[in-house]
Design a protein that fits this description.
Two copies of one chain form a homodimer. Chain A is of the alpha/beta class and 384 residues long. The first copy, chain A, is built from twelve helices and 14 strands. The termini of chain A are far apart.
């Protein structure tokens, strides 16, 4: 898979096939780059994620897939920034999103750099697409909107501008090396999208905790009542965590988390719920250590606010691991923060892609009613 | 070690002992926080690294050590920023550094967030210091200047403002949980400081490559002719790398790297030298794969320029590891970059602290004349 983008570098401007399979520019059959390099307009030579502007025209290259978009799910950090920059005015937030997509050819927040994901229906499949999709499939994209060519055609008239779930009409393009998952039949598209949006977190948490399984590790989840946090807590338990500590910012989230049962109905989703400000290093690490009787072996950061690096590091045992999933993480603060307190901790950049991540998250949401309840409540709250 | 900061939280304003051991405020003997929380002036409650301003007064708390400073070594990203912001004017750069230290009580570049390190002589040791130092020891601090209380008293008159090595008179404070290393007798302080400044990189590279030893891994070092890069290349070889690829930006560095021999004098420090722009993802990954005959199992990023995340990810095999040591790394670009190309790679935030890091780096510099030569040349170039 790593070979193909290189072999195709000579063909940096391959030809799209037409919307109905006809060639647009007479070079029908020239392969696109599986990485989507042929869609990058500026600056030249960068990957689509780093590009300022993409070519989002609907005609597809032979290994591409065009999706009729039904819904966008903006990532939490991006929506928060848009909300704050526009003083919460729905009309201004809507205008901002439309303007970003119009000028950039993708929904990548220029301040946070982040995107989100989308659901839709497969419209046309290039003859060389390796994704295994069929026309008419209802899917969610598992690559970020920050690199997905996108055109919005309905001016977002159905979106109230009040939540990150954006009903939307338009089209999007998947590359050869993109990832998409069929939406399951046993839940709403809204719930499935909401789960798949964060499915990298439980998958990586599961992998890291599994690797320490014999040690009966203590796992701390900072932001455990959130989407990625609740799924990661369930994944940690399934991977063999002996103790799971859930950190939340206030009483309301603590009540929700305490009420959430684990899949077996016997115990809670987490063993200990602690209330602490994740930005207060001594406060949060002290609270975790009091609850668990010692530092965490694995600490998972799932809260999208800046300044949580120090607390996560201090809460973690020497030889332990911190997984940063928050897009508000500062690389420098993490690197220097650990050095500054002589903390021998492994710090992972939360990669949104782990093989099998969508399947694991879907399985967790089906078997963990506590987690499903928290997701459902979040969706219902937005509709009220 | 993780227990002590918490137990002492109640004593947030312990008393310093006087410069000559006398109490300054009548609370002699009250312990300081080993994390240095008692030195944080604003904002309250954060760790010294995150603080805007520290109390850098010379009187020490019982577990602190005061150092008479001889030399600062600004980190590369910080010096580059200062150089660019001041159009390279030495006087303006000097004024900037003095102003930062005067207002913040530490040398932390407000733009990059980074610091550097220092050398000096142990002046006074608190009775409860756990660091094992003796008065008169010549040492280097291995915690960042970004959290070290510092006062400069000579207006930096001996610094030409042209390199990150800053001759300096003043004092600095080490906390209970700081790290310092005695300077060796068999090399200049300048060389030792220059090595210790980056000693986390070879130590973590060694650990990661050792863990894959049986697989005869391919290791790519991006920025292999630099300080952390050349040490990491030597560490990778020692840890069992089968093939080491060194990436450099231009011919001049390529010549230097090609001329560097490995410790045994038999082969080169690296097996393949490739010239590529680390910010060009397809270019750099293609060059590495051509040289090594396939992707790298471990890729180490040691160049302090933004935009190197995509190339490092693309150059790395599925299941491989990328270690980011550059302070110019963007967390978001790394996280979304990997997801965007469906790269199942483990991404590590380069932690500057790994137990035994100074010893390993010193051993490498003594036994690898090729690496030592590159360090020596860098120091000589700065003196010309």
């Amino acid at each position: 898979m790593t070979e193909s983008p290189l072999g195709q570098r000579a063909g940096r401007e391959p030809a799209p096939t037409g919307v109905s399979g006809a060639s647009l520019n007479g070079q029908a059959g020239a392969p696109g780059s599986p990485l989507g390099l042929h869609r990058v307009l500026e600056p030249a030579g960068v990957l689509p994620q780093a590009a300022w502007r993409l070519d989002a025209r609907p005609a597809i290259w032979p290994d591409e897939v065009r999706i009729t978009v039904e819904r966008l799910n903006l990532d939490a950090a991006s929506f928060r920034q848009l909300h704050e920059a526009n003083d919460g005015h729905p009309d201004r937030i809507r205008t901002s999103v439309l303007e970003i997509v119009r000028t950039r050819g993708k929904m990548q927040n220029p301040v946070t750099g982040s995107g989100g994901m989308l659901t839709g229906v497969v419209d046309e499949i290039g003859p060389d697409s390796p994704l295994g999709l069929c026309a008419g499939d209802k899917i969610a994209t598992l690559v970020s909107l920050s690199l997905t060519p996108l055109v919005i055609t309905d001016a977002l008239v159905r979106w109230d501008g009040r939540s990150e779930q954006v009903p939307c009409t338009g089209h999007a393009i998947l590359f050869g090396r993109s990832i998409a998952a069929r939406l399951p039949d046993d839940m709403t598209a809204e719930l499935a999208l909401s789960v798949m949006d964060v499915c990298g977190a439980p998958a990586l948490t599961h992998r890291v905790v599994s690797a320490r399984q014999g040690e009966r590790p203590t796992v701390a989840i900072i932001g455990a009542a959130g989407k990625s946090g609740s799924l990661s807590a369930a994944a940690a338990r399934r991977a063999g965590a002996a103790t799971v500590v859930g950190v939340v910012p206030h009483d309301a989230e603590a009540s929700i988390l305490r009420a959430a049962k684990a899949g077996d109905g016997e115990c809670g989703l987490v063993d200990h719920v602690v209330i602490a400000d994740a930005r207060d290093p001594v406060g949060v690490s002290s609270a975790i250590q009091r609850a668990a009787g010692g530092p965490a072996d694995v600490t998972v950061v799932c809260v999208d606010v800046p300044g949580c690096e120090g607390g996560a590091i201090l809460a973690t045992a020497q030889g332990g691991t911190v997984i940063f999933f928050s897009m508000a993480t500062s690389f420098t603060a993490a690197a220097l923060g650990a050095e500054g307190v002589a903390a021998d901790v492994t710090m992972l950049v939360g990669n949104g892609y782990v093989p099998g991540h969508a399947e694991l998250a879907m399985d967790l949401i089906r078997t963990e009613p506590g987690v499903r309840g928290m997701f459902q409540r979040r969706i219902t709250d937005h509709q009220e």
